[in-house]
Amino acid sequence: MKSSAEIRKTFLDYFCQQDHRIVSSSLLIPTNDPTLLFTNAGMVQFKDVFLGRETRSYHRATSAQRCMRAGGKHNDLENVGYTARHHTFFEMLGNFSFGDYFKREAIYYAWEFLTEVLSLPPDRLWITVFEDDHEAANIWLKEVGVNPKHFSRCDAKDNFWSMGDVGPCGPCSEIFYDHGPNIAGGSPGSLDQEGDRYIEIWNLVFMQYDRDKDGHLSPLPKPSVDTGMGLERLAAVMQGVHDNYDIDLFRKLIIAITELSGSHSRGNASLRVIADHIRSCAFLIVDGVQPSNEGRGYVLRRIIRRAIRHGHKLGLHEPFFYRLVRPLVEEMGAAYPELFQAQERVKQILKQEEERFSETLDQGLKILEQDIAHLSGSMIFGETVFRLYDTFGFPIDLTADIAREHGLTIDIEGFEHAMSKQREQARAASRFKAVGGSELQLDGETQFIGYERLQIEGKVLALFRGTDTPETVTRLSAGDQGIVILDQTSFYAESGGQIGDRGTLLGSDGLFNISDTRKHGAVHIHIGKVRLGQLQLGDSVQAEVNEEYRIPTKRNHSATHLLHAALRKILGDQVLQKGSLVDAAHLRFDFSHLGAIRLEQLHQIERLVNAQIRANLSVETQIMPLQQALNSGILALFGEKYGEWVRVLRMGDFSTELCGGTHVGRTGDIGLFKIISEAGIASGIRRIEAVTGEMALQWIEENEICLRSIATKLKALPDKVIDRIEQLQQQTRQQEKELQLLRAKLANVEGGDLSAQAQEICGVKVLAAKIEGADVKTLRDTVDQLKSKLTTAVIILGSVVEDKVILIAGVTKNTINYIKAGDLVNFVAEQVDGCGGGRPDMAQAGGKNPSKLDEALRAVPTWVGNCLSARKK
Ligand code: SER
Asked: Which residues lie in coiled coils (predicted)?
């Protein structure tokens, strides 16, 4: 038994001996051919040599080429896992002649290698040729002597090989191995040839033509040879197994998967799929492909996702795929050092992709299961396939794979229809763009039908994720903040002082909470957050305005019009609106008016507005040309921009204004109007704030509660509160007076006691003392008392209140020429971290360091003595 590595080497050695140059495998991404998705055969790197566009130093070559057959021409993805012989990734052993030898040598070499080098019994081999290729048929039958019973001629479908839609091609001859009658399948060319009994192992292509994009064939400069033999298929033959997945290259991988999943059922399609896919995914990443949503990256993503889904079937719910990189490297790292080197990167990319897909896989599978359970026919709806693709990231071949397991097919036409419908919507949405930063570019107009109705059905025309720097998206998911644009809406967008509506958008898949509605040109933008599920472009949604905000806002807006008219009637026509804000809680109205407004006038205004409310005037709107409105004397606001057509809003005969806002049906709906504040905010501009309806009632109630609790605290009836307060004020004044008297008495007593402590220095009485807890007033009074008692004196008193030092110094008039109260107070203050000042006879200071006070006071007599002796000299 030969290992795959030995077979690879034997092959290359054999052709080397036949003067072939051993050329290493090229990358899976063809560097010389933009028409080709992946390297799908050994000849790809020699394409230009066949076409005569490139010459090499050799005319014969041999290689073991890594190949990919997924996506594009030669796509085997769907068959992987279900046959013994298909792979997305495999190695192709080949020998090539660039205008050197042709059919005869190619056939002789192949036969010699198989029957002599590898010693395969000729009676297990079967040969096919292209039906018109008599030359090849003759060589096989007459020269090589192949048994005519093991020989068939096939049509172009089987025996004319092309690398792609364009490029080199030619008739071919294939060699099959017969795995024996125990395996189902007919001989090549028979109806049953797709079975696994006769396996094609080697294809000899007699390269003769170049196919152009119209399908026209022109001869190559020189007839050439390109052969390809699948290493895995040959290894199966040489290792005496029928199934490719039983050869050495796969055995360890399959063991690794069964160890991870605990599933041991050999022949399980999922095991094969995963073992195949880890090879292709790893090598695609090694060769520079990254999972993405288009081109090669999408093929990689499809293969990874298919593998993950099969893992899921085996009970692998945690990322597992990346863990197969290690056993793969053990198996193939020696033959492919680039795989060995890139293994960490491969693991990381695979793990990321697994984590990403596992978020939606379960959900998608559930939806698909439900759909299958309710299916009456045998085809899964295109809409479902599309939804799985678009929302849950299920590539369509993955859905087809699952369908196949249930004996079902998928509706590809329906899928494509849904896809093109979405493209159309995306095109329509391109009228609405995020243009970088906080900028949106929105063309068109949202139809506003929110005057009459709070609930309507709308269609999502555009979606943006984020509100500060919005980004155009096709879907918003739970938790996403964003902006929704609808074709029509019941949501009022902030304008004319009225705030934007709040509410909800309910789609079939999700709920969006709208926290604000604004206007961008004529487009209403609904700002908010997806609370549940998701919102998608094209979704039909129930747009429902929250009445709890809208109704009080309407009351406040209508009351603003009544207030405006009442102000003009009471204060005069010079009153003009300067600004307004209307929300659910209150209204704010700024207007021009010189001078104050008396309370009595304010009450008059309030009463006039409430009279209109009780009159229950009808509120009517009329759309008319702006000029007509202006001609009829309707008040337009200076600086406000109006369109050609305007909406005129009348409340009986009391008020007429141009206004686009939402209003009550009749003024009686306002219920009650209450001014809560009035003030000047700039010269000649005043502001009134008011509340209506429920809020007005609430405001009155709160005031009443406040009054009652004041009354309770004062122990008086509410209507006696004022009398009680006056009585209390009187009492306080009386107590102040008494306190004053007591302080004076206290100072007298303290002063009397302290005077005894004064010491005489140079004929002057000097006193420095501390009175615990005395305030400034007490200290001052005491100093005054002492001054009159001691007649010729220098006095400083200190106290500590709340950790701060207070100092008062006094000097009798007859001594101020020798010593100043300010100097004395500062002498002490400096020592307690403070400073002060005052008149020569009386000064005050503060200090921050009470701990130093006693010491500072003790130093006073000496300091005074020094001053006096210096001056008196
Ligand atoms: N190019 C041919 C094939 O891929 C032979 O190598 O089958």
From this structure: none
